[in-house]
Amino acid sequence: MTAPTTGSTGAAALKRHPRRLALIAAISLPVVLGGCQLPTFQGYRGSTHQGHDEFLLYAGTFIAAIVVGVITAALIIWSIVRYRHRSDQIPRQFQYHFGLEIAYTIIPVVIVLILFGFTVWTENNVDNVAAHPAQIIDVNAFQWGWQFNYADKHVSVEGETLSDPDPIGLNGVGCAPANHCYGPGLVVPAGETVRIYLRSKDTVHGFYVPEFNFSRYAQPGVLNTFDLTVQHVGVYRAQCTQFCGLYHSEMFFHVVALPPAQFQAWLSSQQSATVAAKRSSSSATSGSSATSGSSAASAGTAAAVRHRSTSTREAAA
Ligand SMILES: [Cu+2]
User: Fold this and answer.
1) How much is the pLDDT for 184?
2) What pLDDT, in 10s, does the model give residues 204-232?
C-alpha cells in the first residue's frame, strides 16, 4: 500500500474546501499578474511619467474589474449549479441574512474607496508642477494650427494644417515615422520636465497626445499649466480634440523628444536662425524701398521656424 504524497494530500484538502481554493485564487491572481508585464488593455502605457501613472490607474482599475467580474460570475454559476431545481420543495430562505447583507454592502464601498484613493493620488501626480522645470514652453492654439514659443530663448515654432511630414529643422535627424509628423513639432528634451503654458487665441481647442494619455483644453482667456516629462527619445503624434471650426480635422502637431544635448543644440540653431532673420529684416526695411508685403510679413515675425501649407485650403476653396 502506497502512502499518499504531500501534493495529492493538498489537492484533496482544497477539493474538500472550495472556499479556501477561491480565496487562494483571489489572492494569487494579482500577484501572478504583477509578476509579468501588465497588459495594456487596448490603452497606451504612457510615454511620460505623468501618462504612465495614468496607465497604472487604468490597468489597476481594469484588473480590479476583472477580479470582481470573475468572482461574481463564479458565484453565480456555482449557485446555479449547486442549487438547481431538484424537487418542488422550497429551499431554505436567506432574505434576512444580516452578515451577508453587511458584507455585500461593505465590500463594494471599500472597492470604490480604494479606487477613489488611487484616482486622487494619480491626479495629484499628473497635475503636480515642478519647482524648476528644465524648459518652459508657451503653447498657443489657433484656428487652425499651433504655435510653440520658447520665450526665454526667443525661439518660436508655428505651423498650421500641414499635410507633409515636417522635419522642423532637426539638423538631419528628420522626423519618423512620417505618419506621426503632421503639423508643427513641439521639441522637448527627453527625460527632463517641461512646463507647458497652454492658451488659445480664438476658440476652444484640445491639446491631446494619445501616447501621453493626456489631454487639456486650450481656452481663450484661460491659462492651463501642466508639466510633461517624456521618458524616451521619440516622435509622438498629437492633435486637437475639440471641434474648433472648418479645418479642425487637420489641426495636427507632434512632440519630438530629443536627448537633452541634442535638444540644446537644436535650440541654439533656432536662436541663430532667429537672429539671422531679425538682421535680414532690419536690413530689408532700412535698405530697400522695394520691400514686398510678404517679405515684410515674414521679417516682422520672430518665428525662427514657420511652416505653412495653404494647399489644403486652396483645394477646399
Ligand atoms: Cu482646434
Assistant:
1) 86
2) 999 999 999 999 999 999 999 999 999 99
Residues, the chain: 317
CA of 72 to the centre of ligand 1 (A): 44
Give mean pLDDT, residues 272-296. 63
Structural domain spans, the chain = 16-82+94-127, 135-284+296-316
Task: Return the CATH fold of 135-284+296-316.
Answer: Immunoglobulin-like (2.60.40)
Residue 224 near residue 182, CB atoms below 8 Å: no
Q: Please give the full DSSP string across 287-316, using - where no structure is assigned.
A: H-S---HHHHHHHH---SEEEE--HHHHHH
In eight-state DSSP terms, residue 238 is E
In this predicted model, what pLDDT tens digit does every residue of 112-152 receive, in sequence order? Answer: 999 999 999 999 999 999 999 999 999 999 998 999 999 88
Is the separation of the CB atoms in 229 and 210 below 8 Å?
no
Distance of CA 255 from the midpoint of ligand 1 (Å): 16
How many whole angstroms from its chain centre is CA 119? 15
Report CA(199)–ligand 1 centroid distance (Å). 12
Cell numbers for 202: 480664438
Q: Which three cell numbers stand for residue 237?
A: 503624434
- For residue 249, how far is its CA from the centre of ligand 1 (angstroms)? 8
- What are residue 139's DSSP bridge partners? 148, 198
How, if at all, do strands 252-258 and 155-160 pair? unpaired
Q: What is the DSSP letter of 39?
A: P
Average pLDDT, the chain: 80
> What is the 71 CA–ligand 1 centroid distance (Å)?
45
Distance between CA atoms of 59 and 273, rounded to whole angstroms? 45
| pTM for the model | 0.73
Centre of ligand 1 to C-alpha 202, Å, is 10
The answer to whether 113 and 64 have CB atoms below 8 angstroms apart is no
Query: What's the pLDDT band for 307 if we cut at 50, 70, 90?
Result: very low
Cα 309 to ligand 1 centre (Å): 16
Q: From the CA of 160, how far away is ligand 1's center (Å)?
A: 11
